[in-house]
Amino acid sequence: MPPPNQPRPKQCYNLGRSIRDAVENWESDARVRILGSGGLSHFTIDEELDCGMLRSVKEHDADALSSIPLEKLNAGNSEIRNWISIASGAEYLNLLGWYIPRSTIPSLEPGAPWPSR
Questions:
Q1: What is the pLDDT of residues 43-82, one digit of tens each?
Q2: Residue 90 burial (CB < 10 Å; 0-12/13-18/19+)?
């Protein structure tokens, strides 16, 4: 069970959708950009988790994004929650991305440029 201040994946997904709905219903001509920051797996790179996450984002797979096991979202991996929120809020976009696992240093460079509508 996550600490009480950590949202579950489904809550993250719903947050992204709520933000999108709020922006779409805002009566303004202003341009809005929503940004989430954070990495994918940390410390020990989990390529299966990372690639599954990016595949779910690319395929707009709400069920997969909403049901990532909580035990996979511990420590630095918890930043995946940011990706879930942004992915659900921007699911109408086509993701162009890349994934470069770094084995020589404990880091990962996922990339996800989101084109504007």
A1: 778 889 988 988 898 888 999 999 999 989 887 788 899 9
A2: buried
